[in-house]
Amino acid sequence: QQQVKQSPQSLIVQKGGISIINCAYENTAFDYFPWYQQFPGKGPALLIAIRPDVSEKKEGRFTISFNKSAKQFSLHIMDSQPGDSATYFCAASMGGAGSYQLTFGKGTKLSVIP
Amino acid sequence: DSGVTQTPKHLITATGQRVTLRCSPRSGDLSVYWYQQSLDQGLQFLIQYYNGEERAKGNILERFSAQQFPDLHSELNLSSLELGDSALYFCASSVGLNQPQHFGDGTRLSIL
User: Fold this and answer.
1) Quick one: which of A67, A83, A110, B8 is 20 to 30 A from A97 by CA?
2) Strand intervals (E) in A15-94
3) Which three-class secondary structure state does DSSP give residue B24?
4) Model confidence at A98, in pLDDT bands (50, 70, 90)?
């Protein structure tokens, strides 16, 4: 049972373009939604995160859009650069009596071509 | 650099063997998480410790165990290894329970 579905699996964008990666979740108890960036041979690095009380969060060229009613959230990378070429993972976690463990999507391999 | 240190970076061993993976969390972080990354299963949560105590278990096999020591470093023990255990094992740490998790660069385990 995949609780966080991510699409697309791979994405090719031209330099300067907008990269958009989408995720959908099933468990309405999730209350924290981070995005991670992973380069080959490295661990996932936290990029940006959002909680469901806001619909959008922007940090530099990276923006998360969050739609609570649709149970969807997305990552937008503006002015994409070749250095952004990496695998991106969305994730979700829930608090309360839980452990805040992350449930990850399957990942999107982004290639930004010059 | 996330500040989370994992050793060794690579480990090659044979089926049936036992290995120990080590994680040193970021300074001040009390919570340690272990994740497994494989091509077919993706990133999956294994187990979490908070200030020395086990907090939660995920898809962790009975052959696997972990602990967090008083100095807050953690070890993941994998025994009776099978070919399917070949994967990347990541450790992440956070200051508290509801705080961002920061990952180390992982240990690549190869079972021959």
Assistant:
1) A67
2) 19-25, 33-38, 45-50, 56-59, 62-67, 72-77, 86-92
3) strand
4) low
pLDDT surpasses 80 at A96 = no
**C-alpha distances in angstroms, B15 versus A41, B21, B76?**
24, 16, 17
Burial class, B98, CB count within 10 angstroms (exposed 0-12 / middle 13-18 / buried 19+): middle
Nearest residue in B to A101, CA atom: B45
Distance from CA of B12 to the nearest CA of A (A): 16
Task: Give backbone dihedrals phi and psi of B79, rounded to 5 degrees, phi first.
Answer: -125, 170
pLDDT digits (tens, 9 = 90+) for B38-85: 988 899 999 999 999 999 899 899 999 999 999 999 999 999 999 999
Distance, CA of A94 to CA of A100 (rounded, Å): 5
Strands B74-78 and B64-68: what pairing? antiparallel
Q: For residue A16, give both structure tokens.
A: 């300067």
Q: Which residues, in sequence order, are bridge partners of residue B54?
A: B49
Give the residue from A101, A103, A106, A109 with the most B CB atoms within 10 Å of its CB, the best one to mutate: A101
